Each structure stands twice: as structure tokens, then as C-alpha cells.
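Q: Given only this backbone (647 positions), what sequence would you predict?
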């Protein structure tokens, strides 16, 4: 229990210290030291949980409850003032309504509710803590070098890096609090802290575009926060404010309406259609912010809540709502990613698409689907963080984030290109864990007999293969005599990128052990939720996936790693001119003498199909469909309870 408190307090203390530190010479050891301590605490927590040696006792604290209320009020006032200042009254209205609801709830309803345990820990919480602790702090270390270069390139702007790093660690503290909170009021407070931290980080540069996108994020996420607050009032009136008890109620359909509201909050936080635009807008922020939001914090909070609620969805309208929204998002955003040439937008749309797949699995709610959702969450976190960091460093050194500007990147940034290729391979190629998890998704959806969802999965997977493969081809293509640009990469960037690559490979090799000793035991506790005709969780997973099969996949990953390492060094072979459709003239320009004795130039360009898969072609109608599904789903949940009757 002390370890959980340490994970919340440690980054909070680091955030407070970093707010007052403006010198790099002091900031660097504080960030690295804090990151190391957080990682060690996460390892200690995982060992204690897996071995059963960690002492766990019920925690009840009125002081923390009052502190969360104070934080909620401060956050509400902050957003209210910012909305007035920047001429976004809707944000101020949402902040005001939400704050009033929370204050009335805490002062009138919450104190009459008996809570057995404010904190709850299970294997899913521990896994999320490991993702936050390792991926999140790794990104913080990367930011040391990246933000130094960023500030050098933006000398006209005030150096606000002390605020940047302070908010980063505050974000991590809130995420740790979120994944361990069983008290829904505590969870809501941490939920809103992550929302406001994202708001500040997206608007960090304070340009007009950054401010506009930050308010898009805060408005959309406060809609989810408002739904969360209404769910709190409803549940508090019924005497239930513990997440584990709510899940048990949802399994028998007694809490459909508040669960629908919480699912809506999770979908907004996970940037699902029709709320995907806020996450795309976040790309205006510095790359470490994008990596943090996409891999280990903001959007992961949404899918974490949906994964926790998954056993309570069942085959009712709540599950169908989440499944349809997730499936639609997976398909449409995978198609739109094909049309993007901006590397960060490809990563953003692929993130939203993969989160959609996780949401669809959570909506299905079977053991296979929950297994797939958890591993999709894990591998997406480590692979996507690696890709974001590689793209950020590449952008600083080639001067562009456009995929078409990455010609010959394998020679210009050879190590970065190899790491980037590894991240892409993990996202869509066997034997890496992402593809295995998608296979489990196919199994789980096939069990539902839902033909439409199967077609969505098939076409979405094909689109995923297309946009990754064409980018990978660009990265691996080689011409000659390009300058090596890697000498200017900071050590902190190298460490973080190498660390993320290690996590990708470690998770792939440890796949069977994580499944056997972490995920399957977590699913086994929900055996009483299994639907008629299905095996208990551990039997189902063992029958369809199997420890031995996963072990073979892990061995294949090791073989790939050895091959990867063999080609990681610089070649000392003599380079010769490339022969294309004629004798080479200028290797750098890829020009050659054609059949008419003239000079022609070859080029490698991708096919983007914007007329078919562009944002304007697909997103407007998809957003309308998403809104209809959400409205119908929540309305059915409300009607099912006789217009909001108590539990």
C-alpha cells in the first residue's frame, strides 16, 4: 500500500520541484533521478503483487476526499477563467456546471455513502502502472534533449520548460491515482487533472492554433467529465461509489444508465468518433506531449476505464454502443491514415484506430476479447511511444515531419531509421505482440457471430497494413552518399529511444509469461460473468491461444532480434553507383541516362488516395453516425431504468 502512495507522491514532488528549476544543469538530474525512482517503485509494486508479498489493507481518508473536492473546484475555476480570457464561453459554461454538480454532490450526497475501500489493486492496475512508470518517465527523459533543441529553434518564445516538465510529472501522478482509485470520486478527480494537464500541454506554445486546439480538447473532454459527474450523483444517491461494486451490479444489468455515462466519458477521453479531432489537434504540441498523450496517459485513461467496465457491459446496449463506436473508429481512422503524408498525423490516426479496436474488444466483453484488449493496450503503448520519439528526433534533423521528406533516411539517420522500422514492425507484423492480439480479437468477434463487425475488422486490418507498409518502404529505401545527421542527437534522446525499443522487444519476448501470470489470472476473477455456453476465462484463453504457441512466437522474436542486431552496424563495404533503368548519372539525385540518351530522374512517392480516404471524404458522415449511436445507446440505458430510477 505504501508503494501505491509513493507512486502518486513521487511525481507530485518532482512536479513541484521542477516548477522552480530553470537551469538545465539542475533540471536534468532531477528528471532522471525522479524517473529512476518511479521505475523502481513500479518494479517493486509488480513483484509484490505477483508474489503475493505486498501488504494490502483498506484505505479510507476523509482528508483525501476533501482534498479531491478542493482540486475539482480549483480546476473548474481555472478552466472557467481561461474560457473567458480566450473567448470560449462554452468551455466556461461546462466548467461551471461541472463544478457546481461536484460541489453539491460532495457536500450533500457523498458523505452519506459508506465506502469499504477507496483503493483497489489488480493485475490490470499493475500493468497500467508499469506502462505509466516506464513509458511515461522514458518520454520525460527524452524531453530533456528534445525541448532543448525546441527552445533553440524557438528563441523568440519565452523559455517555459520549467512549466512543461512540471505538468509532465503532475500528469504521471494523476495517472497513478486514476488506475488505483476504487472510490469513484477520487477517480473523477484524477480524471479531471489529466484533462487539464493535457489542455496546458497542447497549448504550450501559445500560438493561435495551439490555443484553438487546446480548447477543442478541453470542451470535448469536459463533455465526458460532465457525464462522469452525473453518473457520480446517480450512483451516490443509490449508495454506491466503489468501482468494483458497480462492475458487479452492471453484470446483472442493474446499473445500465451510470455505466453508459461512464462509457461515454471513456470514449471521449479515448478520442473515439465523433471526438477524434481533439487528439489530432494535439499534434500541434511538441513531440513529447504527443507521445505522452498517445502512449501512456490521456487516451489510455479512457480505454483503461472501458476495460475495467468490460465485464459489466455484457450483451446489452452498453456493450453494443461501445463495440459499434470502437469498430467504426477502427475502420474509418485506418482508412483516413492512408491519406496522410504528415508522419505525426499518421501516428495520430493509427492511435485513434487502435484505440477503437481496444474499445470494440471491451464492448464485446468475452474472455478472449478482454485478453486481446489488454495486450493491444500494452503493445500499442510501447510501440507508439517508440515511433513518436523517432519521428520527433527525425523532424529536428531533417527539418520536416512529412513522410515524403524521409527519402534516404536509412542513410541520413541510420540508427533512428532502424528503431522506427522496429516500431512499425511491432504494429502490424508477426510474431510481434500487436498482430497476435489482433488475431485474438478476430477470435473474440467471431464468437459473437456479428458479420458486420467481422467485415469492419477485415477491412480495417487491410487498411492498417497498407499505411504502415508504405511508410516502412519509405524508411528502408536506400540511395547513396547522404550526410549522416545523427551526431547532433542528445544522449537523453538516444537513451529514451533505445529504452522504448527494449520495451518493445521485452514485451514481445515476455508475451507468454505476461499472459499466463498476469492477464489470465485477472480474467479468472470474472468467471461468474461468463455468458452461457462459454468456458471459464482461463480455459478459453488456454484453448484458443496457449502458452506453448505464445512461447514459439517469443522465440521467433528473439531470432528477429539477433538478425536485427547483426545488421545494426555501419557497413564498410565499397559503395557503387546504382543502376536503374539506365547507367547512373548522379546517385544523389537518382538520375540516369534513359533509352533516348537523355537524363531522367527517378523518385519514390507514396499513394495517398485522398479523394477516397481523405478526412473530408470520410469523417463528416462518420461523426454523424457516431453521434447517433451514442445518443441512442445512452437513451436506451436511461429508458431501461424507468427514467432514472434508483438501483
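A: Predicted residues:
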Amino acid at each position: 500500500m505504501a508503494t501505491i502512495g509513493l507512486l502518486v507522491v513521487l511525481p507530485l514532488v518532482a512536479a513541484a520541484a521542477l516548477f522552480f528549476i530553470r537551469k538545465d544543469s539542475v533540471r536534468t538530474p532531477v528528471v532522471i533521478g525522479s524517473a529512476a525512482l518511479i521505475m523502481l517503485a513500479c518494479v517493486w509494486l509488480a513483484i509484490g503483487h505477483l508474489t503475493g508479498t505486498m501488504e494490502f489493507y483498506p484505505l479510507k481518508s476523509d482528508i483525501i476526499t476533501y482534498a479531491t473536492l478542493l482540486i475539482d473546484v480549483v480546476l473548474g475555476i481555472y478552466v472557467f477563467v481561461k474560457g473567458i480570457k480566450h473567448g470560449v464561453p462554452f468551455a466556461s459554461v461546462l466548467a461551471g456546471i461541472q463544478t457546481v454538480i461536484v460541489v453539491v454532490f460532495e457536500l450533500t450526497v457523498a458523505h452519506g455513502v459508506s465506502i469499504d475501500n477507496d483503493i483497489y489493486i489488480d493485475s490490470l492496475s499493475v500493468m497500467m502502472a508499469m506502462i505509466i512508470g516506464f513509458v511515461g518517465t522514458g518520454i520525460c527523459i527524452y524531453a530533456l534533449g528534445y525541448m532543448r533543441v525546441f527552445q533553440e529553434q524557438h528563441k523568440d518564445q519565452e523559455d517555459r520548460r520549467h512549466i512543461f516538465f512540471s505538468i509532465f510529472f503532475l500528469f504521471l501522478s494523476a495517472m497513478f491515482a486514476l488506475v488505483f482509485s476504487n472510490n469513484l470520486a477520487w477517480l473523477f478527480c484524477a480524471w479531471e487533472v489529466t484533462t487539464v494537464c493535457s489542455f496546458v500541454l497542447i497549448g504550450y506554445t501559445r500560438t493561435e492554433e495551439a490555443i484553438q486546439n487546446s480548447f477543442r480538447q478541453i470542451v470535448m473532454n469536459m463533455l465526458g467529465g460532465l457525464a462522469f459527474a452525473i453518473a457520480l450523483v446517480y450512483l451516490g444517491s443509490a449508495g454506491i461509489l466503489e468501482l468494483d461494486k458497480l462492475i458487479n451490479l452492471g453484470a446483472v444489468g442493474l446499473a445500465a444508465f451510470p455505466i453508459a455515462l461512464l462509457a461515454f466519458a471513456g470514449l471521449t477521453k479515448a478520442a473515439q468518433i465523433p471526438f477524434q479531432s481533439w487528439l489530432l489537434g494535439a499534434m500541434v504540441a511538441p513531440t513529447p506531449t504527443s507521445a505522452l498523450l498517445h502512449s501512456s496517459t490521456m487516451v489510455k485513461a479512457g480505454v483503461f476505464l472501458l476495460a475495467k467496465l468490460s465485464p459489466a457491459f455484457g450483451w446489452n446496449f452498453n456493450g453494443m454502443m461501445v463495440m459499434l463506436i470502437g469498430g467504426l473508429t477502427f475502420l474509418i481512422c485506418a482508412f483516413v491514415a492512408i491519406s496522410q503524408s504528415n508522419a505525426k498525423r499518421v501516428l495520430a490516426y493509427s492511435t485513434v484506430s487502435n484505440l477503437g479496436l481496444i474499445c470494440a474488444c471491451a464492448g464485446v466483453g468475452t474472455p478472449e476479447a478482454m485478453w486481446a484488449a489488454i495486450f493491444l493496450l500494452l503493445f500499442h503503448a510501447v510501440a507508439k511511444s517508440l515511433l513518436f520519439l523517432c519521428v520527433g528526433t527525425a523532424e529536428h534533423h531533417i527539418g520536416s515531419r512529412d513522410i515524403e521528406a524521409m527519402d534516404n533516411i536509412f542513410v541520413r539517420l541510420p540508427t533512428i531509421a532502424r528503431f522506427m522500422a522496429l516500431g512499425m514492425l511491432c504494429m502490424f507484423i508477426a510474431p510481434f505482440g500487436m498482430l497476435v492480439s489482433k488475431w485474438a480479437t478476430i477470435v473474440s468477434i467471431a464468437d459473437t457471430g456479428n458479420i458486420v463487425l467481422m467485415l469492419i475488422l477485415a477491412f480495417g486490418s487491410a487498411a492498417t497494413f497498407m499505411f504502415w507498409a508504405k511508410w516502412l518502404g519509405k524508411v528502408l529505401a536506400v540511395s547513396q552518399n547522404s550526410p549522416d545527421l545523427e551526431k547532433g542527437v542528445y544522449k537523453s534522446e538516444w537513451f529514451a529511444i533505445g529504452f522504448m525499443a527494449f520495451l518493445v522487444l521485452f514485451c514481445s519476448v515476455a508475451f507468454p509469461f505476461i499472459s499466463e501470470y498476469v492477464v489470465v489470472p485477472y480474467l479468472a476473477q470474472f468467471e461468474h460473468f461468463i455468458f452461457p455456453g462459454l468456458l471459464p476465462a482461463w480455459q478459453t484463453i488456454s484453448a484458443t491461444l496457449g502458452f506453448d504457441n505464445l512461447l514459439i512466437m517469443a522465440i521467433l522474436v528473439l531470432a528477429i532480434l539477433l538478425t536485427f542486431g547483426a545488421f545494426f552496424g555501419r557497413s564498410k563495404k565499397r559503395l557503387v553507383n546504382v543502376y536503374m533503368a539506365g547507367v547512373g548519372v548522379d546517385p544523389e539525385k537518382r538520375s540516369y541516362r534513359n533509352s533516348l540518351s537523355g537524363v531522367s530522374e527517378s523518385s519514390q512517392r507514396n499513394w495517398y488516395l485522398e479523394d477516397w480516404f481523405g478526412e473530408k471524404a470520410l469523417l463528416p458522415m462518420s461523426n454523424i453516425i457516431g453521434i447517433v449511436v451514442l445518443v441512442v445507446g445512452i437513451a436506451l440505458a436511461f429508458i431501461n431504468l424507468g427514467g432514472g430510477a434508483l438501483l
